[in-house]
Amino acid sequence: MHFFKKTACTVIPWVLWVTICSAQKIYKGKVTDAITREPIEYAGISTGTPGRTAITDKYGNFQLSLRSDTATLQVSCIGYNRQVVRAVSAGSPITIMLTRGAVDLKEVIISPDQNNNSFHTLSALDLNLRPVNSSQDLMRLVPGLFIAQHMGGGKAEQIFVRGFDADHGTDINVSVDGMPVNMVSHIHGQGYADLHFLIPETVSAFDYGKGPYYTEKGDFATAGYLNYNTKDALDHSLVSIESGQFNTFRAVALIDLLNANAKKNGENAYIAGEYNYTDGAFKLPEHYKRYNLFGKYSLRLGDNNKLSFSASTFGTSWVASGEIPERAVAAGTTAIDANGNAYKIPEIADPIGRFGTIDSAQGGKTSRSNIVAKLATGLKNNWTMENQLYYTHYNFLLHVNTSFFAEDSLGGEQQQHETRDMYGYNGKLTKRNYIGKNILTSTLGLGTRFDRTYGTERSDVTEQYKLLDYIELGDIKENNTNIYLDETLESGKWLFNAGARVDGFNFNFHDSTKTNLIVSPKVNIQYTVDDNIQFYLKAGKGFHSNNAITVIGNNGFETLPAAYGADLGLNWKPFTHLYLNAAVWYLYLQQEFVYSDDGTIVPGGKTKREGLDVSARYQLAKWLFADLNLNLARPRLADSVAGHGYLALAPTFTSTGGLDFKFANGVNGGLSYRYMHSRPGNNTNTLIADGYYVTDLKINYTQKRYEIGLSIENLLNTKWNEFEAEEVSQLKGETVPVDQMSFTPGTPFFAKLRVAVFF
Question: What number of helices (H) and strands (E) belong to the chain?
Fold first, then answer.
């Protein structure tokens, strides 16, 4: 008994002393932009002590646990001036406003609470440093993502990423402000993602993730996802005019509709418009025309609610020169015979130039109108809720010809058409629990999406677009409803994230219905050694849905083929002005979807991919920045034998990089390159899709009230092919069809001048 009393007298005071010394004081605050008064996400909050950092959430909020009653906080964010706030008292929430400033890699903080945001630093740096004036520029900011246009400028780009020829979006989930861009059961290809309705000057930020590891992302998020956020408020209005070679013209305007007093009260509204025209480099003028209109209104309702409403519409039309068989341009090209053996083709009688045209009846027109409404609500006891509604009306018409006279004597012309309405809802409820030094974040999400098409059509037509026969015709009704639960525990240097989502689908075509369900678990583990290095492991299951026409036809295809993947990576700042991200990865896919240009679905079987991604950002001087991305992949059919099982057009090695400069006198710009290694054109590698190396240059002179800029695509005037694919075609004068690569030539030297006025 005496022993226990003595022990208690010793231990209890010690426990009390430790408890008092380790008592944590809570520091809360919000970080906003000094001009727009909008919250800043991913701002870093530090105390100067290693490990004592925090990152703001999407509402600009942060929370730190410290032992002292007062503290000095250092607040930084890429593209803003660092601010030091002294004598901050615990328990008294503060608002910190940051002013725009020079980009400095010193402001990059590696923090334990950066769950699933390994790539945010890269996206923020690239968007701040590299001028963009098209949706294509925006997509190329993603390391390892390449795009190609092969049917005139009006069609959605072909996307290549992480060893995938992702067609027009089959294996990458694309969204704008949370609204899906991908079109399910599209007549031209599953997941068709046409981003041309987005005006690049309205984009405030973008985020992306690679692999199927993100609970909030569902259909098509196999290779990854890509989301753009538009500005809630403008820091200035602008009018810009651009003109260049090939009768190219672009005009854009962003007009702020409210004054500074309204901004102080949390009210913002602006409108934006864009017009594009070009004839392109082809001998047959493209007559490419596109208009975009966009408007957005946002309002803070009290301290805890924010309402935003946006509406947009765009329309485009164009004439396409299409894809050209290699033999139509040069002698000695490669083709394969019925047994798969390669042979050479001599020069044809009447070769055409690389920018020539075989069928002048190709082209199309498309339009899309969107409405998005969102309400974000801060509830009591660290609860937040988001509710979003969206609606899209869409039209698509395309005339395409890749086979010419291979199928019949009438020329091979095909028409693809659909009209669509899309309705949807996204909602989530989030709770942050502070348990001592630990933070547990729980999110429950719910979403639903309805797509209905009217007169989905694929048909054979004449060059005058007269109907010959229908290949496919009918209305599609498709619904995807999902629910997910996501849990994240932050404990010291560790972060553990686990979640699962359930997606239910209902497919209807020709009054036949099929339903299916898929469960997708995810897990992410992250360990932050210190402010300079962080390791992460990601693993999860994702999927891409199949086209409703194929699902109802039940042609031996999986309805919801699953993808299983894993990433092992790191974020590292070996010294102040160098940031590195690297990951080794693996992905297995139950069934590959491959779409030919006539829209038919070719089964690809089970596939596997492994690879290595490396990205580096280095600040060489106060005004000079270097970037480098290296992406290696080994895509194969899972059950293939040696020498076979290649995946046509799937990239195996890509790289992008460049130098960007920003002088204090207003001179800024950059020199960049993109490299695509040659890759198999078919599954036996007997046909080759040629690689390319293209260099671009941008130079601007920017002042407070105006900007003058010059941009040059393909500075070295490289002869390259933007797109290639194996096609069976027959030209006039040929007696039998020929199986070889067809191509769309890449843009030659292309210079444009731009003048912008800010007010």
Answer: 5, 47
